Amino acid sequence: MQRAVATATRIVLGESKNGALTAAIKGLRAKVEDFRACLVRDLQSRSSRNLNIPKDDHKKLIGKEGAPLRQIEADTNCRTTIPSRDTATAAIKIVASREDVEKAMACIKSVSERVEGYRVYRMPSYLLSIHP
């Protein structure tokens, strides 16, 4: 949106029935070409990565009302997708520019490692009988 203001253009986004995103750019021809080139460059530089985090850590990452996850998304300019409890996969999908994906992965790993420090590990009952 900032780029549209800077180039004195308007952009109208639409979605077709098959899910394809369409962008209509309006303005002076030279400005439209500049904006289109920037838009294509930005879209091509998008990156997507999957990060495997144990499912037990997902609830700590999401936090109360999703605030920690929204904060990570705002700080790193990324979009994250956390699988539902019913799915077998534990992979969190991160979509952003390459640099922002790396930043988001580091933030998510740090949250997961903090959670790791507070895990309760249960000893098997046969060990409890020999431990004082």
Automatic annotation (TrEMBL):
Record field: transmembrane: none
PROSITE patterns cross-referenced by the UniProt entry: KH_TYPE_1 (PS50084)
Listed Pfam families: KH_1 (PF00013)
Gene3D superfamilies, alphabetized: K Homology domain, type 1
Coiled-coil intervals, chain numbering: none
Domain K Homology: 45-113
Record keyword Zinc present: no
Domain of life: Eukaryota
Keyword RNA-binding: yes
Annotated keywords: RNA-binding
Gene Ontology MF, one: RNA binding
Protein's UniProt name: KH domain protein
Organism: Necator americanus (Human hookworm)
